Amino acid sequence: MCGIVGAVRESDTSGFLLEGLRRLEYRGYDSAGVVVINQSGRLERARTVGKVKELERALTQTPLAGTTGLAHTRWATHGGVSETNAHPHICNGTLALVCNGIVENHEALRHSQQEAGLAFTSQTDTEVVVHQVYLHLQNGLDLADAVRATMDELAGSFALAVVHAGEPGRLVAARQGPPLLLGRAEKESFVASDINALLPATRRYQVLENGDVADIRGASCAIKDSGGSPVERVIHTSTQSGAGAELGEHRHFMQKEIHEQPRAVSDTLEDRLLGDRVLEDAFGSEAGRIFDATRQVLIIACGTSYHAGLVARHWLEYVGVPCEVEVASEYRYRRHAAREGTLVVTISQSGETADTLAALEEAKRQGVVGALVVCNVAESSLVRESDLVFMTHCGPEVGVASTKTFVSAMTGLLLLALVLSRRHGFDSGFEAHVVHQIRTLPGALEAALAMEDAIAEMAQVFSDKEHALFLGRGAHFPIAMEGALKLKEISYIHAEAYPAGELKHGPLALVDEKMPVVAVAPNDLLIEKLKSNLEEVRARRGRLYLFADPASGLESREDVTVLHVAPVDSAIAPIIYTVPLQLLSYHVALIKGTDVDKPRNLAKSVTVE
Ligand code: AGP
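A: This is the predicted complex of the input protein with 2-deoxy-2-amino glucitol-6-phosphate.
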């Protein structure tokens, strides 16, 4: 899941390309590179390992200049993280190419290209693509036709852009899978993996469809579809803010985003509630018709968004709506029996997660009454592919570890459960009670944030640990899973989550005095059961760290540290109990000195499968 940006401009494009890379860095920050066609009609390239700022440093020392160029930020799939594996890849000193995606038949192509006498300088799957385009050029094809011929020979899922030193002012782009947008301006054209990279130059954009090849010459752009026929793609005007997110007084974006949660939730709720009711239109104008036809819900998502789905299953089944929750990368390749009246719900911060997009396509193929997405990015692929949309109004989330979008997505899913509850015999009194609780969310989140100092102190214990267990029950098991994921992601401590009642079936063998066990203990129907499970841990000399309701009766003692969470209604408790776990992982990472916002090996948006 790399980021691509390219441009054909009237003046030097290197500044635009660099800014584009900064805005696409969330897609991968293993290495970055840029190529331009210089005034003498030669390719000039710079590549660096690490984040975009490394490339920026290199370009300050040795600037590149040219009106046509490409740039790329990489998240390594094939070939390690090295300068030679960084894009753009060049063939014969004349042809440069950037690619996002995976070419599955790269080994066979590499073999035949080596036999044809081409030399390789990288271990990437992408290098075969630039060689293949080159071979077609050698056979007399025009650049756009050579790209088309190459696409037809590639297996996999990719988006690419290519320039030829002999044709300044021309850029060819193609899509077969990952999104690729064309930016259109009066005298110039652009290409990028997402709208953010285009905004410094233009708000007008087209979305390439699968199989499209776009031939850009200055401001003109001819698109041909997968059958090779000329097509027009709609020109959209972006309404997205062009401003990048600012860190302000915070040390990290993750910390800022954790503290923004009360605001993110209140913005997400704005205009979605009327008195003590949820407005059905919050999900789109077709919501009434689709919800009337809904007999069950199928939730599909990845990572943190999947955890939000697992919490939502508790809410939906509570109000009588059968619900399944699937990890997108598994669902997309599994055989499943279609169930009549299924509403498919995808959850995604970015709206660009490749597995979730593919799983949605598969669910639609099975037959659904409608597709709803809960998403934070309005101009994203999942929003475009869905009938109903619930936007979380969090503003950009920069930290790789999702925080405010998790809490806001759960809020949206609770509203969905309420809207569906009306069709399952729940009266307005039930809805009014839960809406009243939902309105308390911003204040309750503030109260949870006030625990930060105590949590920072608790975090000291974890900084030299290699493992941790997270426990929860009911709707709080997914919260424990999310807590474990956060700790793994940003502090590189191996953490596992279990439903507390499951410990005795195996994981209890791991528990000794060196194993910290974190548990969330709201005062709900399962509290006594949970307390028994915690005693099982103590009896094995496990060290407990608890976030508990004061009424739970759980208090600190020698082997137990308890931090009390202000009492909240069980309807909203999973949302509130998320906060202390986020703060714990953040403070452990701070002590360990890891790169909190850009943890190793990860990327903010996972646009490859
Ligand atoms: C969250 O902390 C993770 N970085 C990751 O699990 C993320 O939630 C997942 O990749 C799904 O992303 P999405 O919400 O943008 O689809």
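Residues 449-597 form a domain with the Rossmann fold fold (CATH 3.40.50.10490). The radius of gyration is 26 Å.
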